[in-house]
Specification:
155 residues, alpha/beta, 5-stranded mixed β-sheet, two-stranded antiparallel sheet, 5 helices, 28% helix, globular
C-alpha cells in the first residue's frame, strides 16, 4: 500500500500495546497523535530515536500529543525495551504487520545485496480529527524529536 498523504484520513488501527491494553486511533480523538514506525526494539537507530522522544516527552505532551511507537516486535519485547530505556510512552505490537501495511511502511529493503521485507522508519503526525497533518519519510533518528515538536506547534 502507498503511504497515506498529508490531508488524508489516517488509517484506523487497534493494536495490543505495552500498557496491557489495546489502543485504537478512534480512542484518541481530540489529541494529536505521533505515530512513529521503527524496525526493531533495542537496536542502535531505534534506541536513538526512542530516547530522543523520551527526552522531549514532556514538551510533546504539552502540545496535546500522544506518542505511539510501532514495530512488528511483540508486547513482551516492547516491555523490555521500555524498561531498559525508561520510555514514558506506549509501544504498539504490530506482529501481523497489518498496521505497517496500512501506513505503507512495510517495504522491500536491501542490505549487503540481500532483499528482505522490513519497516521503513517513518513518522506520521495525526491531528485531533484523525487527519494526517505531516508525514516524515526516511527519518534520521538523531534529532527527529525536534522536527516533530516544530510541526506539533503548528497543528
Amino acid at each position: 500500500m502507498p503511504i497515506p498523504q498529508e490531508g488524508n484520513k489516517a488509517p484506523e488501527f487497534n493494536k495490543p500495546a505495552s500498557n496491557g491494553k489495546n489502543i485504537a486511533l478512534k480512542d484518541l480523538k481530540g489529541k494529536n497523535v505521533v505515530v512513529y514506525f521503527y524496525p526493531k526494539d533495542d537496536t542502535p537507530g531505534c534506541t536513538v530515536e526512542a530516547c530522543g522522544l523520551r527526552d522531549s516527552f514532556k514538551e510533546i505532551e504539552k502540545l496535546n500529543a500522544v506518542i505511539l511507537g510501532v514495530s512488528p516486535d511483540s508486547v513482551k519485547s516492547h516491555e523490555k525495551f521500555i524498561t531498559k530505556f525508561k520510555l514514558p510512552f506506549i509501544l504498539l505490537a504490530d506482529e501481523d504487520k497489518k498496521m505497517c501495511e496500512a501506513y505503507g511502511v512495510w517495504v522491500e529493503k536491501s542490505m549487503y545485496g540481500k532483499k528482505y521485507m522490513g519497516v521503513a522508519r517513518t513518522t506520521f503526525i495525526i491531528d485531533g480529527k484523525g487527519t494526517i497533518a505531516k508525514v516524515f519519510e526516511k527519518v534520521k533518528p538523531e534529532g527527529h524529536e525536534k522536527e516533530i515538536i516544530e510541526v506539533l506547534k503548528t497543528v
